[in-house]
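Mods, move this if it's the wrong board.
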Amino acid sequence: MCARESLFRYALSYLERSIIFGRISGNGPATSLRMQRLVGALLFLARDHVENREYCDIAVVLEEILPLYRGEINKKEIDLDVTTQPTPVVAPSGIVDCVLHNLLENALEHTTVGTIAVHVDGQRIVVRDTGSGIAPEAQQHIFDRRYRSPGGNGMGIGLYLVQRICNRLDWEIRVDSQPGVGTTFTIGIRNQPSPDTGFSELASG
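Not the wrong board. Structure tokens:
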């Protein structure tokens, strides 16, 4: 299966899981926005060597999607700790949405009690959980396409897609994990708009 087919299989899985967990429902503006973002992200990755001039703020995208996870978080004995600072980036909002979605999905899937912490500070995205952790021998494979952790429910595409997005945007992603303790994903952000870009005007309209 080619990489493009994998992306569209991921899209179907994403939509299916989002509907099941109530993250995409109804016919309102929020539903349309999330579907548009997903399609935009897939098209962004499908194109080769296309200059990107879209801007968004990671903190704003995170604020928009967090309510979609509250129900599942409340069903578990999990505390959600979120700290953010304005973090404008040269990237479509759909790309950022997909990155955050997959990291949050991964944390929720492997955490039953404890804490999920999300930190956005202008230079980094950090998602930390107190879940089951990742075995050392598995850590070198978690970004491989179609790799699934034992007992995992996904298609083995989510983290692969995150790494592919990071590579495309020249972001650096790393994982630190200890079985029985938890996992931390850290993404270093490198392509922030320059001060003379007029980001606030572009982002708002």
